[in-house]
């Protein structure tokens, strides 16, 4: 059986950080894995550089606010850690460096990243840039489990939908998800017909079978602009609590260009999604 031994969870100043911690702790306990929590937000000095050249009182207020946000996140971490058992180790660390760079640097020594969907609400402040999760997924080379900002469900990995396409990204996502798929009660594989080609679900079905996973196949037609919505709709129909899929995109520096399906799912997801690039 494949194993997950180390997970790295990103913590920020968002209001739903406690829900992310709870999901991470449950997943780590289920796999007897180490859960490392990294608090990484954009420092006030980088967010408001001009404030630090002006009013000293404003600087003091900014620094106090930054410290208060960090303490709230750490208090949520301590509460969640106290609910755990001895099956997994949970650690805390924090950084004052630029968050994307700092998180990616630590991600390279982890099996799975636990990230959050960007909340577009004007009042939803997280302390990280809107493209944080995208940049980490595309820049780290590590699989990432992204939790929707509305929160996760009561279960994770009990009923899983795999979005299959014969690509390197999709294959990496399935491989990364094997430890979860092997523990799932139900595994579904959605595949679609490529234009001018024939569907190829048999190879992935056989691969999963060799790893002790019996999957139910679902043909979802030809790729369209609405494929992302179609996948999310299929996940809802199947009452899936996890979607596994490849993450498609490219770019230099922070100018990421996402594939249409990846962008749609990241924007509209209502269940946790395990991505791999």
CATH superfamily of the largest domain: HUPs
For the record, what CATH class of the largest domain applies? Alpha Beta
What order do the SSEs take from the amino end to the carboxyl end, as H and E? EHEHHEHEHEEHEHEHEEEHE
Shape: globular
> How much helix, percentage-wise, in residues?
25-40%
List keywords for this structure.
10-stranded mixed beta sheet; 2 domains; single chain; 12 strands; alpha/beta; 9 helices; Rossmann fold; about 280 residues; two-stranded antiparallel ribbon
Describe the protein's topology:
Elements: E1 6-11, H1 17-30, E2 34-40, H2 44-47, H3 56-82, E3 90-95, H4 99-107, E4 112-116, H5 132-140, E5 144-147, E6 159-164, H6 168-181, E7 186-191, H7 202-210, E8 215-219, H8 227-237, E9 242-246, E10 249-252, E11 255-258, H9 260-268, E12 273-276
Parallel strand pairs: 1-2, 1-4, 2-3, 4-5, 6-7, 6-9, 7-8, 9-12
Antiparallel strand pairs: 5-12, 10-11
Helix pairs in contact: 1-3, 4-5, 8-9
Task: Give a quick rundown of the structure.
With 277 residues, this protein is α/β, with parallel strands linked by helices. Helices cover 38% and strands 22% of the residues. The strands form 2 sheets. A 10-stranded mixed beta sheet has the order 3-2-1-4-5-12-9-6-7-8, with helices on both faces. Strands 10-11 form a two-stranded antiparallel ribbon.
